[in-house]
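EI: anyone free to look at a 95-residue chain?
SC: sure, send it
EI:
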Amino acid sequence: MKCISVYTKNFEVFSDIYPQIIESPPEDNEEVIVEGITVSGSGDVPEQYIERMRVKPEVVVMKEKKRGITILQHGSVFEICMPVAGEELGSLNEA
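SC: here you go
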């Protein structure tokens, strides 16, 4: 899954810029500023990372089921984990 880090702890600000980030995500290792907030392409993360983070009490987990996106919020960062093209089928076949 591709991971995008959004450096804010303000959920309202994150919610406001989320559609822009999804519409035009940064490339891996690319850092952009969206409405004053730093957003960076963090590359690929394994499914196990999401599962490990999900069980931590300090991590809030949100899902956008329609697009298969998982959002992890911890500290002052939101991590948007989204499937790479073709990955949805691979994940379903492994389950």
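EI: Residues 89-95 have pLDDT under 50 and may be disordered.
SC: 👍
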